[in-house]
Amino acid sequence: xxxxxxxxxxxxxxxxxxxxxxxxxxxxxxxxxxxxxxxxxxxxxxxxxxxxxxxxxxxxxxxxxxxxxxxxxxxxxxxxxxxxxxxxxxxxxxxxxxxxxxxxxxxxxxxxxxxxxxxxxxxxxxxxxxxxxxxxxxxxxxxxxxxxxxxxxxxxxxxxxxxxxxxxxxxxxxxxxxxxxxxxxxxxxxxxxxxxxxxxxxxxxxxxxxxxxxxxxxxxxxxxxxxxxxxxxxxxxxxxxxxxxxxxxxxxxxxxxxxxxxxxxxxxxxxxxxxxxxxxxxxxxxxxxxxxxxxxxxxxxxxxxxxxxxxxxxxxxxxxx
Amino acid sequence: xxxxxxxxxxxxxxxxxxxxxxxxxxxxxxxxxxxxxxxxxxxxxxxxxxxxxxxxxxxxxxxxxx
Lengths: 321, 66
What we know:
The complex is a heterodimer.
Chain A: E1 5-10, H1 16-22, H2 27-34, E2 36-39, H3 48-52, E3 59-65, E4 68-70, H4 71-83, E5 84-90, H5 92-96, H6 108-118, E6 133-136, E7 139-142, E8 146-151, E9 161-163, H7 170-182, E10 190-191, H8 198-201, H9 250-253, H10 271-282, H11 288-296, H12 301-305
Parallel strand pairs in A: 1-2, 1-3, 3-5, 5-9, 9-10
Antiparallel strand pairs in A: 4-8, 6-7
Chain B: E1 8-12, E2 23-28, E3 34-40, H1 47-50, H2 56-62
Antiparallel strand pairs in B: 1-2, 2-3
């Protein structure tokens, strides 16, 4: 029987997801033996031209990581969608924009202006910005158009499976690939992750009586002798309750509050609102004024509540100046 | 400078087996000699901009995802 054909692509990604595919350790050898890899820019030397020459739906499984930041990425993921039977979004960026989507709080112009004109490390006296087209003496050169916002993959193409995390735990990648090879993937759309929220996997214990008078920053964190206490109860913004399970509370076990990279749990529409309702119920205030004061002291609420999912959030992104 | 019309072009797109995106355009004259080559990086994230105003201790968790 012919081996299933697999492609892996990255859009606006850091490469961490690709590395996590390799972090399946010795299982990567089984994966490589079980499938034909047709395209994987970080690891194999295939070109866009090779993808264009494939038949439609020739790829059995296309794993895409990274959000959509520019016109090239939109073009390639649409091309890959046409050439693939099944598309899986790997990692927070592909699923909901991820860290690069924090840029959605600004428009393209102000980002370009800052990066190419104002940063202290730049030396750009004539002040040009990158142009989509440039007529060099030898011929026209083109680069992709930089979009005004970052998009999640499924805002551009149909996606059947989601493997969350920043980066996704190798155990989930193995679980998804094994299910694909055995033909036991659930009916799409489906997320390959744990059950419930990160709190369900967390070894710390909630104290139902706990109240927080002042929310603290991680910089104020000194590991408590009692590592059993819930970080939220201790006054740290831990996104565990509003985050999909599947990471086995990796960060919290290292005394770092959850930043929510696994994305929102199943059935939650907006993760920031979900988290805010936890924060509100824990905040020790008797009047609205007092609550407002306590919460206004929290630095960078957008970055804490929507670090990985601005494109998929109710607030959307752009800050009204 | 040779005229633009006689230039042959070799595009290496994308550059592979590295971390990041890139493309190389190589221009050849009628004898097949390289006249010029352009290395292009089509990627920008804007970390310089969107890291502003965030707690400094959070940057250790934000910028590795570049």
